[in-house]
Design a protein that fits this description.
The protein is about 35% helix and about 25% strand. With about 325 residues, the protein is α+β, with helices and mostly antiparallel strands. The protein has an 11-stranded mixed β-sheet with strand order 2-5-6-8-15-9-14-13-12-11-10, sandwiched between helices. The protein starts with a strand and ends in a 9-residue tail after the last strand.
């Protein structure tokens, strides 16, 4: 396996490979990745076999002597084609370590694509992390996902809230009014956490133009049209992921978020493979935001782990054979 540094003129080749891969999503497309390219020193990599065929790619950037499996993305790791076998993945990790050693990079942080996003089993990289890199698990976040076609019964609070919202005339529909939702989102994040969204309004509008079918906004409104809550979904072939969820103070009182996901789960995405509500980190002893995860689990969400691995690049790790 030949491990080579990605160059911008290879964007079309990269994007075509990701689109046909087993475990890539539109987040790994350069049109998505590069919206914030000014914030990261890109060091993405591409692996070619001896016949010159592209076999895998990995989004990454460097910080000092560390390679990061791109921190501007929720997940990354090896994005593999159909032909990639377990032995090939091990050879790729050997080639990666040789490349990193040659350019003076001594540490790696690696975030694999969670299995729910795989179109077909694609955990060869996890085996190679163990067998070749002797990587250690350094972080594990619990996301909450459900299978709409195999629903877990909603808890009493969520059932009551969704029914109450429906009785009060709250309606839910897809919308392009990102400016309306961003006002709700920014206010809620600042008041609750003292933070701002990862994306600015201009950035999410740009990404929506680039990925109109993959980035979807749903809004819940009162009968008079007043916006109450919304969610931005990142839709991939396997997963509808709630990238942002937020309600106004009135929306929270009127259970607008419950109405929102009642519509999404039971109607528009009722046949999708997974719906993923995202992680719920907090400062409790278990590292969870217990109120937030209680709400997500109330809809039937159950844990899917988003993991992070690390290893050091030493000369004796350059080959296991």
């Amino acid at each position: 396996m030949n491990c080579k540094l990605y160059h911008p003129e290879q964007a079309a080749e990269w994007n075509a490979f990701v689109a046909a891969s087993r475990n890539g999503t539109f987040l790994i497309d350069r049109r998505y990745m590069d919206y914030h390219s000014d914030r990261f020193a890109d060091h993405s990599l591409m692996w070619y076999d001896d016949g010159g065929r592209l076999a895998a790619v990995m989004p990454a950037h460097v910080q000092g002597d560390k390679l990061c499996s791109h921190r501007g993305l929720t997940y990354g790791g090896l994005i593999m084609g159909d032909r990639c076998t377990t032995v090939m993945a091990c050879e790729m990790m050997e080639a990666l370590n040789r490349h990193l050693h040659d350019v003076g990079i001594r540490r790696v942080t690696y975030k694999p694509v969670p299995h729910i996003y795989h179109r077909y089993p694609a955990e060869e990289d996890l085996y190679a992390l163990h067998a070749v890199c002797h990587a250690r698990l350094t972080r594990r976040d619990a996301s909450s996902a459900l299978i709409p076609t195999m629903p877990v019964k909603w808890n009493r609070d969520r059932r009551y809230a969704a029914n109450k919202a429906r009785t009060d005339g709250i309606t839910v529909a897809e919308s392009d009014a990102f400016d309306v939702f961003w006002h709700i989102l920014e206010d809620n994040l600042m008041q609750t956490y003292g933070k701002t969204p990862v994306h600015s309004l201009a950035e999410i509008q740009l990404l929506k133009k680039r990925f109109p079918d993959e980035i979807r906004l749903y809004l819940a409104r009162k009968a008079d049209g007043t916006p109450l809550a919304g969610t931005v979904l990142y839709v991939t072939p396997q997963v509808a992921h709630a990238q942002y969820i937020s309600g106004s103070p009135e929306g929270k009182h009127l259970h607008a978020v419950d109405a929102l996901f009642d519509h999404i789960i039971r109607r528009d995405f009722a046949t999708h493979r997974y719906i993923d509500f995202g992680i719920s980190p907090g400062d409790t002893p278990y590292g969870l935001h217990t109120t937030l995860i209680y709400q997500k689990e109330g809809f039937g969400g159950r844990a899917v782990c988003y993991d992070q691995y690390e290893w050091e690049v030493y000369p004796n790790q350059l080959s296991v054979r």
